[in-house]
């Protein structure tokens, strides 16, 4: 894993800004930086967690490359648990690039791989795998609520619960081992009852975590929400109103939107991945036909569908076809243009869909949007989000491993009930313990570690 190398990367977004930060980590981080850094202080001798002003100088030519601040953090009291140096340069592409190129020039320091700083924090035992995965969730958070959930996980909220579960199973395994080694003191009925009791307690804890999975996954990834309807009913206007920016072109000409436009928006703390689709209708226009097909594909993949209808016109056959296709899906019916005289008979709509999923609104006058927020919250979060101290499970890997551990414990309980020997029952309990350990990263393959950290941005 090349964990002994000294690595460097730009840790801030590329572009213009007040400052840019280059992070260097490894046993040679301080020494290699000291070769280039000119200051009143020798940073090889300064205390840890101190900041120093100076200049980066090209040792070959003596040219001053940059004026900057250097922060020294010695391991293990650093993010990677190694010696870390952070160079805060002027923002902009040129300044930070020149400093990084000079650091890499001698060949002792290499460019970091995506996520390698966080990977080293994991490999060096500073954080476990659930905390490492939470770092990428922090970066990708699309709402305050999603950020709070990721922050709790990064601080170890999920880790503590899983470690407590594993400790409980270790105690159970120890009890079983004693009874296997000293069978003359074992009372089978009492041991089986104890196994069932402790396994059931662990299953209850796992169920509490899995109960948050659906909501946690939504907070992490957002609700894929397709805005669909006939051309010119106000879909693009709704997207613009929700994101509060003119992202989609709006005209009176039917078929203006030719492709799927994607934007993230937060409504009442709920992240929505909005897909504004081309108007779905029969058309001979080749380009519009492609847009309609993409709209149908987005419709199939959506978690939530906002079907928009124009109440200032009678119900059309295309409207009826869409409503028929969407029966049984998570749908909110938006009766738009209520600021105009109503020409649509809504009885047919009310027969097909629950009244509490039908909203009358005027995107032009921005009325009814609050009700939309309430309906979405009720559909996906039983009316409200849970309390802030709840530990959410949002990662598919975590959900899968918790499910497997639960099944192993159920297998152990079933085995005791049908009289399977206790040494065989022990295998199921141990498998559950190992699966929870895999969740934390105690026993995980190198390929999985590489796969997880390859999703990180460079410099994190």
UniProtKB/TrEMBL annotation:
Gene Ontology cellular component annotations, sorted alphabetically: cytosol
Cofactor note: Binds 1 potassium ion per subunit.
Binding site for K(+): 232, 251, 253, 256
Chain residues that bind GTP: 232-237, 251-257, 276-279
Record-listed Mg(2+) binding positions: 236, 257
One Gene Ontology MF term: metal ion binding
Transmembrane segments: none
Ligand binding ((6S)-5-formyl-5,6,7,8-tetrahydrofolate): 23, 86, 126, 460
HAMAP family registered for this protein in UniProt: GTPase_MnmE
The protein's name: tRNA modification GTPase MnmE
């Amino acid at each position: 894993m090349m964990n002994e190398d000294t690595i460097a990367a730009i840790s801030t977004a590329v572009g213009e800004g007040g400052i840019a930060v280059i992070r260097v980590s490894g046993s040679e981080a301080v020494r290699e930086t000291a070769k280039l850094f000119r200051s009143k202080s020798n940073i090889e001798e300064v205390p840890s967690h101190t900041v120093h002003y100076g200049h980066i100088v090209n040792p070959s030519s003596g040219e001053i490359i940059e004026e900057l601040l250097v922060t020294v953090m010695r391991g293990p009291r650093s993010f990677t648990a190694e010696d870390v140096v952070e160079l805060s340069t002027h923002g902009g592409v040129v300044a930070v690039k020149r400093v990084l190129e000079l650091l890499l020039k001698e060949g002792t320091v290499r460019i970091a791989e995506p996520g390698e700083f966080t990977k080293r924090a994991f490999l060096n035992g500073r954080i476990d795998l659930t905390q490492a995965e939470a770092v990428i969730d922090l970066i990708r958070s699309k709402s305050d609520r999603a950020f709070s959930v990721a922050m709790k996980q990064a601080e170890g909220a999920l880790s503590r619960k899983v470690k407590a579960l594993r400790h409980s199973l270790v105690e159970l395994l120890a009890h079983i081992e004693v009874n296997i080694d000293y069978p003359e003191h074992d009372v089978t009925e009492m041991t089986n009852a104890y196994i069932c009791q402790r396994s059931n307690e662990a299953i209850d804890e796992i169920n509490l975590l899995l109960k948050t999975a659906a909501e946690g996954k939504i907070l992490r990834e957002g609700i894929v929400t397709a805005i669909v309807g006939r051309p010119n009913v106000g879909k693009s206007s709704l997207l613009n109103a929700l994101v509060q920016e003119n992202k989609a072109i709006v005209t009176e000409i039917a078929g203006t939107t030719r492709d799927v436009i994607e934007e993230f928006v937060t409504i009442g703390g709920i992240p929505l991945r909005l897909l504004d689709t081309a108007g779905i209708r029969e058309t001979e226009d080749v380009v519009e036909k492609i847009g309609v097909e993409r709209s149908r594909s987005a419709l199939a993949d959506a978690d939530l569908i906002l079907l928009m209808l124009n109440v200032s016109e009678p119900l059309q056959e295309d409207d009826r076809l869409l409503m028929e296709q969407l029966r049984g899906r998570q749908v909110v019916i938006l009766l738009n243009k209520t600021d105009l005289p109503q020409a649509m008979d809504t009885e047919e709509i009310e027969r097909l869909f629950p009244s509490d999923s039908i909203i009358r609104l005027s995107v032009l006058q921005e009325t009814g949007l609050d009700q939309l927020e309430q309906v979405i919250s009720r559909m996906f979060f039983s009316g409200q989000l849970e309390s802030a101290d709840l530990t959410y499970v949002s990662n598919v890997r975590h959900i899968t491993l918790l499910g497997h551990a639960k099944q192993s414990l159920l297998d152990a309980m079933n085995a005791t009930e049908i009289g399977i020997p206790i040494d065989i029952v022990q295998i199921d309990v141990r498998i559950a313990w190992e699966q929870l350990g895999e969740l934390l990263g105690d026993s995980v393959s190198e390929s999985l570690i590489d796969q997880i950290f390859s999703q990180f941005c460079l410099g994190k």
